[in-house]
Specification:
Pfam families: Thioesterase. By secondary structure, the protein is an alpha/beta fold. 35% of the residues lie in helices and 14% in strands. Helix 2 packs across helix 3.
């Protein structure tokens, strides 16, 4: 993608606060997943997984950006949004196990997983768990999209979660995904800082599942050209994690490149998911 591509008019939306008031449709019994817009006639599903400190509302614009053939769902983490009263998760592996338990019955049609930053790690681990524990459901996994994340066998051992508050806030400001209102308001910071710090701790201390043997699934890595936390070679090594088609898509911007380019990112995801599903259907006949 060239740097001349035009972003959406308002590059500041959506930003992370952990709480989003835009109405979305929720599955009546779901805790870990919510349907952002029910589409009974959709032939495909897309599961969206937010970043550290993020919630399912981060993807509230996506239903309008995806074709009607794709039903969008989002994973909602404990300790925020409608799960604000629940304790924060202790380990990323627990998030993966609990989310997988609720997700696997949904895989009754070709499904893609799109995870951003920490969400990419969770998406990868969920797909791995589906492959080993729910093989019937795994056969419906058509594509894994990993955004703004280095490959699991190319880990970055960070200690951001241990930084003092002022340094921690500065890292978040540089990444660009947290509203200034949260970082600059003491009451807001007191509310959201534990969520952000806990998510960073989980991500930074997680030991990823090995990429051997590779997953039999198509994988696309998506990155921003100016993201200091994910360099292109580290993202390109996602090709080792799967033995299906691999694609690396790059956009102008930093860690949250997908905010101003939401329409283009969603269109790319929709096209690649459809292509993977069609290849899978052809291989099955």
């Amino acid at each position: 993608m060239s740097a001349s591509s035009r972003p959406l008019e308002n590059p500041q939306q959506p930003r992370t606060t952990g709480v989003h008031r835009a109405p979305v449709h929720a599955h009546p019994t779901a805790r870990w997943v919510r349907c952002l817009q029910p589409r009974p006639d959709a032939t495909l599903r897309l599961i969206l997984l937010p970043h550290a400190g993020g919630g399912s509302g981060f993807f509230r614009m996506w239903p309008a950006l995806l074709p009607d053939s794709i039903e969008p769902w989002a994973v909602q983490y404990p300790g925020r949004e409608r799960r604000a009263a629940e304790p924060l998760p202790a380990r990323l592996v627990d998030v993966v196990a609990d989310a997988t338990a609720e997700l696997h019955p949904l895989l009754d049609r070709p499904t893609g997983f799109f995870g951003h930053s920490m969400g990419a790690t969770i998406a990868y681990e969920i797909v791995h768990r589906l492959a080993t524990e729910h093989p019937t459901a795994f056969r419906q996994v058509a594509h894994l999209f990993v955004s703004a994340r280095q490959a699991p066998h190319h880990p970055r051992r960070g200690m951001i979660h241990t930084l003092p508050d002022d340094e921690f806030a500065e890292v978040l400001r540089r990444h660009g995904g947290t509203q200034d209102a949260v970082l600059d308001d003491p009451e807001m910071w007191e509310l959201f800082q534990p969520i952000l710090r806990n998510d960073y701790r989980m991500a930074e201390t997680h030991r990823p599942t090995p990429t051997t043997p590779p997953l039999p699934v198509d994988i696309t890595a998506l990155t921003g050209d100016d993201d200091p936390s994910v360099h292109s070679p580290a993202a390109a090594r996602w090709s080792d994690a799967g033995d299906g088609e691999f694609t690396h898509r790059r956009w102008p911007g930093g860690h949250f490149y997908l905010v101003p380019y939401a329409a283009e990112v969603a269109a790319t995801v929709a096209r690649l998911l459809r292509d993977s599903a069609e290849r899978g259907a052809s291989a099955a006949t």
